[in-house]
Amino acid sequence: MHLGKRQYGSYEREKDFYNAFNESVEIALREKVDAFVVSGDLFDTPVPYHGMEPIEVALRGFRKLKEAGIEVIVIPGDHDAPKKVGKPSILFVREFGGAKVLVGEDAIRGIEVKGVKFYGIPAFNPYRSSEREQVKKLMKILAKKADKKSVLVMHVGICDILPFSCIEMEELPKGFGYYAMGHVHKSYHKYYSGSPLVYPGSLEVVSKDEIVDINNKGPVLVDASDDFSFQKIRIKVRPQFIVFVRGSGLKALSEVDKQIAQIPPRSVIHLEVSEEAKPFLEAIVRKVKEKRDPLILRINVITKKKKVDEPKKSVPKGVGILEALKEIYGEKLGERIYKLVEAGMVSKDEAYKELIELFESGLWSRARRAS
Predict the structure, then answer these.
(1) What are the Cα distances from residue 76, in Å, to 223, 351, 359?
(2) Domain ranges of the chain
(3) The domain 240-302: what is its CATH number?
(4) Burial zone of 218 (CB within 10 Å; 0-12 exposed, 13-18 middle, 19+ buried)
(5) What pTM was computed for the model?
(6) Given its phi and psi angles, is residue 183 left (phi above 0), alpha (psi -120 to 50 degrees) or beta?
């Protein structure tokens, strides 16, 4: 949900995230659900950067749900965990909003709602061996509690879906009736040991690569009385578009005209401008602003890189991690990824955050395709 995210420094975008959360609350009230489950990252940061509004929005929403007799169940995501010290915002929703937070003994003991038991595994760093071992022990305990009327709420990526900061699907404890997953921002589902494993995805567009999934944002409605059947409830979010501008002069301007014709006002527009069109950037930007009045206009000039045809290489067995990364992603990017992973294994500092942003940017996948 990432409440408090001020994307691109825009308060209007921050409000979009509040609106998406509030709409999900209204859907829960309208559908008369028994439980409202948040699989991590309720907040964008552990402690609000721009005032208390994220906490106030969450408390108002959760109190509405509680007053309607709906149980609120939350697990901490990696965005909810303090990097160093301080009281995380998620504890306020437990103390003042009546939410049940699945941490510590509560995660193991579970919370029962109308005959369905909810257990939790909060966010952890799969690169840290100590955390991974601790989670493995927790999984063994929960595996003994699993049955087809129980739900595992978990915040982690599955490597088949998110190829970093992840675990293999086979590591999950079997036997639960439903796996309520968080951490992956795109909507995704599959079946694991005969039960649905579902990532609803983020309620709003958190990064540019999610634009392709923009019409699939929203919560998932689950019917526990019918073998955990589920359906996606789509909500309307602020439109975002990627506009590619190639060519020069009138050709570039004409191309822009065609691409922005159907874009509604106050959208977020990402301009991807070729080097060819760069000299006409001022005219292109002026045209987009005059015709579409975007809330946010982001500009990225794509520089040409000399393409070198090289035979594809496979990484030999037994090769070191650094060498393997260099082999796959190239000398510079491979070394950068290695250093960031190394930093992430020691602490969740700015370097670890940079690693996550690097992978979310899609640069790693472009490097792989180019290799």
Answers:
(1) 24, 21, 22
(2) 7-232, 240-302, 321-370
(3) 3.30.160
(4) buried
(5) 0.80
(6) left
Helix axis angle, 90-97 to 53-67, nearest 10°: 40
Does pLDDT of 110 surpass 80?
A: yes
What mean pLDDT is predicted for residues 242-271?
91
240-302: same fold as 7-232?
A: no
Taking alpha carbons only, the member of 136, 192, 182, 178 closest to residue 157 is 182
pLDDT confidence of residue 181? 96
Instruction: Write down how long the chain is.
Output: 371
* Of 23-27, 77-81, 96-100, the least confident: 77-81
CA distance 218 to 230: 13
**Secondary structure E strands in the chain:** 35-38, 71-74, 100-101, 111-113, 116-121, 150-155, 157-158, 166-167, 178-182, 188-192, 195-199, 220-223, 229-232, 240-245, 268-274, 296-302
Read off the DSSP letter of residue 278.
G
What span, in angstroms and rounded, lies between the C-alpha atoms of 43 and 58?
Answer: 9
Query: Is 7-232 a domain of CATH 3.60.21.10?
Result: yes
Could you list the active site residues? Answer: 79
3-state secondary structure at position 236: coil
Q: Is the pLDDT of residue 251 over 70?
A: yes
**pLDDT over threshold 50, residue 295:** yes
